[in-house]
Predict the 3D structure of the following.
Amino acid sequence: MLGKRKLAYTLGIFLGLVILATAPVAMAEQATAPAAPPATAAPATAAPAAQTPVSPTPAEQNAQVKEDVTIKLLNQMNQLLIDLIDLRASLILEARADELIRKQLDENIYLMEASISELKKTMAADKAEIQTVLMVHDEQLNEFDMKLVTATEAIHKVLEEETAALEKNIQRIDAVDTAQNAALDNLIKADRGLNTRLWIALGASALGLILSLVK
């Protein structure tokens, strides 16, 4: 902003010096140029004779040229001052606009920082809550794992006891089957011996009957 203002002031001073240096020369050239002869009116029969206009003296011409140059220079200086005032006003308005924009940006940055801070707080609270929930779940899972291990061990123990009891029952059944098979074998052997003795007795009876009939 300060650079623009300094540039405008420097440009104004430079233009003023150029105008001061060139304006008198141009006016002097216009003044020294030969004046055009005045136009003469056609003689009229009814009108009176025209008077010849009086030409200004060189001093009057120089004074008029200086006055014209001064007026023109003042007008240019006034216009330059007006332009500089307008430029200064525009620079002031631009500076105010920049200040307003800067304030708005500062407010926006403050609001964004506040929003980010609030978001961080919310995220921290959510993270703590999630960690708490995860800890509770971990505790519940650990407790469930312990219960599951305990139940599994109890089931294995019951299965081992049932297996041992079943093996004992199988051994008892095998022993009963063995005893029953041995008794059956003894019964078969006794039945065979009885049959043999019965046949011998029958043979002896028949033989005695035959011998008694023969006598």
Summary: Residues 23-50 have pLDDT under 50 and may be disordered.
